[in-house]
Amino acid sequence: MMKKKIFVILRWMVALFFSTTILAVVIYRFLPVYFTPLMFIRCGEQLADGKSLTMHHHWVSMDKISEHMPVAVMASEDQRFLLHHGFDFGAIQNAAKHNLRGGSKIHGGSTISQQTAKNVFLWPGRSWVRKGFEVYFTFLIETLWSKQRIMEVYLNSIEMGDGIYGVDAVAEYHFHKNAKDLFRGECALIAATLPNPRRFDSSNPSPYMRKRKRRIEREMKFIPVFPEEGEDVDPKTVVGGAYRGK
Question: What is the pTM of this model?
Answer without folding.
Answer: 0.87
